[in-house]
Design a protein that fits this description.
Blueprint: E1 19-22, H1 33-46, E2 52-56, E3 77-82, H2 89-96, E4 101-103, H3 107-118, E5 123-126, E6 152-157, E7 160-166, E8 172-176, E9 179-180, E10 186-187, H4 197-206, E11 210-215, E12 217-218, E13 229-231, E14 238-241, H5 275-284, E15 292-295, H6 302-309, E16 317-320, E17 324-325, E18 328-329, E19 338-339, E20 343-344, H7 347-355, E21 361-365, E22 368-370, E23 375-376, E24 379-380, E25 383-384, H8 390-396, E26 399-403, E27 407-408, E28 412-416, E29 419-424, E30 428-429, E31 431-432, H9 442-448, E32 451-455, E33 459-464, E34 467-473, H10 479-483, E35 492-499
Parallel strand pairs: 1-2, 1-8, 2-3, 3-4, 8-11, 9-12, 11-14, 15-16, 15-21, 21-26, 22-31, 26-32, 34-35
Antiparallel strand pairs: 5-7, 6-7, 9-10, 10-13, 16-17, 17-20, 18-19, 22-23, 24-25, 27-30, 28-29, 32-33, 33-34
Helix pairs in contact: 3-4, 3-7, 5-6
């Protein structure tokens, strides 16, 4: 097969100053490990390729040297445009230290921008990012002081403001599939997600660039079901084979992620009682029959566990931004996957659906919120974290439920007889006078009339036209001592302030969903 090359030769096809687009997701998911490893090896041995621009739509890496950390060497990388940086801590530190130009664009914007580049369009017109750090009137997605160019601008169209994200050529697209035939057609049967593979491949080819794909195995020409081909051979230039390819950094192959088998509905152990479960339980009370839902990483993924414990999982549809619809989202490192999905679609189309308002509900984490209802998840303490799919999802879901503990670093709680006790307070409040970076704009949400809540283990707030309103506190909590004195701003206190449902704090099913059908 003429397109097959040894992994050791990959570096020959990457040139100095190239722009690379890597299709992958955090936790080593769909990570073209061998390709990236050998690009790094080429640089360390020969000093080339250097001065690269690196693009990734999702967070990539495994926190163990993979993903974009393969490019975290002085001189190797000049610029990174990526949605999320946590999985590649070395290159994140380089960004924080101004050792390269660091930009963060939203995950959905990146996937859709790849499609625009493929179609020869000047850029992407989107409302996503207005009023946030992505807005060029604020920070323009720049994460450090050495950024030299503007990747976006605000335009007027039909009497309305829009973000315009500019196209740029892609010299190399790098991705992973499962099987390649002799013509270079690629299937994804052992991958739990497809991501933006097609858009990135088309963008590179129509930019005059190349596409390099890593696969697990080869097959003869004419043996593939054409409906299974995700990246056609006309888009593929080179193929690297890695028979030891894993689904993620911790999973060799889990067939329930791909739909090959349906895993039995096992009765899993209930979440242990604690702050995370309390937040997830109160958040889950916002669910309703038939809701189409997105769950963010961290505390929000506990909502799926609560739904299972309460027996309502079959009455809602959970989705993951990487393209999974239905089933139960995986947790932790495998977060991009879902057990027993109903469908796995291209990530680009998932974000089209999200951006248009297809989500009824989303549950998202937050690191900070302020008196304007702004939320920060993307940069704090100088650390470059990135926004992932948060900007698309939070700005467009019909209802947003932000989930977090009230304080961080050392918080310890207890529950007794349906009441909450603060055993040790966290060192840092998340209720700030002003967030370090605006990842979600409270002003924009109020202009849209969006339904926004903030749920913590001891207090619940709503974003209303008049500002941030405290609506509920936990039983056992002192309003002044345990809430108000620990906030950097004073919220509006509802005239109908009430206690959170005591059932949330009892170590038994809540019984909140008896008529949930």
């Amino acid at each position: 097969m003429a397109k097959i090359i040894p992994a050791s030769e990959v570096g020959r096809y990457i040139h100095d100053n190239d722009t690379l687009w890597i299709v992958s997701s955090g936790g080593g998911i769909n990570d073209p490990y061998k390709i990236l490893e050998n690009i790094e090896k080429s640089y360390l041995e020969n000093g080339h390729p250097r001065d690269l621009t690196l693009c990734h739509a999702s967070g990539i890496g495994d926190k163990n040297g993979g993903g974009s950390d393969r490019f975290s060497h002085r001189g190797m990388t000049r610029k990174v445009i990526g949605s999320h940086w946590v999985w590649s801590p070395n290159i994140s530190r380089m960004a924080a230290n101004n050792e390269l130009e660091a930009y963060t664009l939203p995950q959905g914007v990146m996937t859709q921008l790849a499609r625009c580049i493929a179609g020869g369009k000047p850029g992407l017109i989107s409302h996503v990012g207005l009023g946030t750090y992505l807005d060029p009137r604020i920070e323009g997605g720049k994460m450090n002081t050495c950024c030299k160019e503007d990747l976006s601008e605000v335009i007027q169209l039909r009497g309305q403001e829009w973000m315009f994200y500019k196209s740029f050529p892609i010299q190399v697209a790098i991705m992973r599939g499962t099987t390649a035939d002799e013509d270079g057609n690629i299937t994804f049967e052992h991958e739990g997600v497809v991501l933006e593979a097609v858009s990135a491949a088309q963008a590179a080819k129509n930019s005059g660039g190349i596409v390099i794909v890593q696969v697990k195995r080869l097959t003869k020409r004419g043996t593939m079901d054409p409906k299974m081909v995700k990246v056609p051979g006309i888009l593929v230039d080179y193929i690297v084979v890695d028979p030891n390819q894993k689904q993620s950094s911790i999973t060799d192959y889990e067939p329930s992620f791909t739909g090959e088998v349906r895993a039995p509905d096992e009765q899993k152990d209930a979440m242990p009682m604690g702050a995370r479960k309390i937040v997830a339980r109160r958040a889950a009370q916002e669910l309703f029959p038939g809701a189409v839902v997105n769950l963010g990483f961290g505390i929000p993924d506990g909502v799926a566990s609560v739904a299972g414990e309460e027996g309502i999982s079959d009455n809602i549809t959970l989705t993951v931004e990487q393209g999974v619809i239905g089933g139960v989202p995986a947790q932790g490192i495998n977060f991009s996957f879902g057990h027993n999905p109903q469908a796995i679609i291209d990530e680009t189309y998932q974000f089209d659906w999200y951006d248009g308002g297809g989500l009824d509900l989303t549950f998202l984490s937050f690191a900070e919120m302020d008196c304007e209802g702004n939320v920060n998840v993307s940069k704090f303490g100088g650390r470059v974290v990135g926004v992932g799919g948060f900007a698309n999802i939070s700005q467009n879901a019909k209802k947003v439920v932000f989930c977090a503990t009230f304080s961080s670093s050392g918080l310890e709680i207890g529950v007794e007889n349906g009441k909450l006790k603060i055993l040790r307070e966290g060192r840092f409040t998340k209720m700030r006078k002003q967030v370090e970076q605006i990842s979600f704009s409270g002003k924009f949400a109020r202009l849209k009339g969006q339904n926004v809540m903030f749920v913590t283990e001891r207090a619940v707030f709503e974003l209303r036209q008049e500002g941030v309103v405290l609506t509920e506190i936990a039983p056992g909590i002192d309003l002044e001592k345990d809430v108000l004195t620990l906030m950097d701003f004073r919220p509006i206190i509802s005239d109908h302030l009430k206690r959170m449902d005591e059932a949330i704090f009892l170590n038994q099913p809540m019984g909140h969903f008896k008529n949930f059908d």
